[in-house]
Amino acid sequence: MTTKNNIPLESRLPKTYRIKEIRRETAKVQTFTFDVSLGAQPGQFIMLWLPGVDEKPMSVAYDDEKGLKITFFAVGCMTEKLAQCKVGDLVGLRGPFGTHYEWKPRQRLALVAGGYGAAPMYFAARKASEDGCKLDVFVGARSAEHLLYIKELEDLRGATVHIATDDGSRGFRGYNVEVLKQQIEKGNSFDQIFACGPEMMIKAVSALSADYKIPSQLSLERYMKCGYGLCGNCVVDPLGIRLCKDGPVIKNDLCQKILEFGKYHRDDLGKKHEF
Ligand SMILES: Cc1cc2nc3c(=O)[nH]c(=O)nc-3n(C[C@H](O)[C@H](O)[C@H](O)COP(=O)(O)OP(=O)(O)OC[C@H]3O[C@@H](n4cnc5c(N)ncnc54)[C@H](O)[C@@H]3O)c2cc1C
Ligand code: FES
Asked: How many CB atoms lie within 10 A of CB 4?
């Protein structure tokens, strides 16, 4: 994974862009497209500033010369306001920040996505597919209406999509990590596993990756403020690494040394919250 040590000043300062296109994915999820490329790699994030409200990290759902996309859940103060924006409204973007997923051409990859993690996983899947990789993508959600990026993933060359829902309303009833385990036990071998989603899903992927000795790259999130290693808000115990700079995408051997992984995270004031 690549750490951007020298983030140029222009990437650290927000610039405002108009929302070019809005796509409603589900009742609570929207995708915004901006008429700019920030040169982001799959797994990196940007800081999105809603003037007068707040600024929050968002994974890049796609970035090329045709534009940059983010996909977000309206869950709280800032994202609910963001969900009310219209095409043509101005928001601030800065970045891209953090590490990204890495693969070699023609590798066989297992991609595990939960919640909005399906967006950065689609970005990784599309780029890896262009590099001739063979992909198995395991998408999980609470129920069928919460699944994201299924059609886009199914359209990718070399990709097989496996769906799991908690209530069984589409695909396997249960967790996507269980479906990955079944595939491994059937004899499917993978060069690497990538994962992005809720921390307890990442924890299960981490354990599977260690048990079956398959290298993995996992996206870990903590409360982020500056996004480029300055404020220390995203530091994890006991390593002291900053997940905005040394992450969010980290290898499993490093992830397993993080004491708080799957146990607790800290809020904007540094107070601990258990998962
Ligand atoms: C590297 C990174 C990438 C992210 N990518 C995306 C993305 O692509 N799409 C997306 O919808 N969200 C993403 N998030 C989470 C996003 O930043 C939070 O949803 C957002 O901060 C919520 O802000 P809010 O003001 O609307 O909610 P708040 O009022 O701050 O909180 C509402 C709820 O969301 C939870 N929450 C707040 N911040 C976070 C956080 N950093 N991580 C997890 N839960 C949080 C709170 O605990 C609370 O339960 C990402 C977070 C990180 C760290
Ligand atoms: S968010 Fe400031 S150091 Fe990571």
From this structure: 18
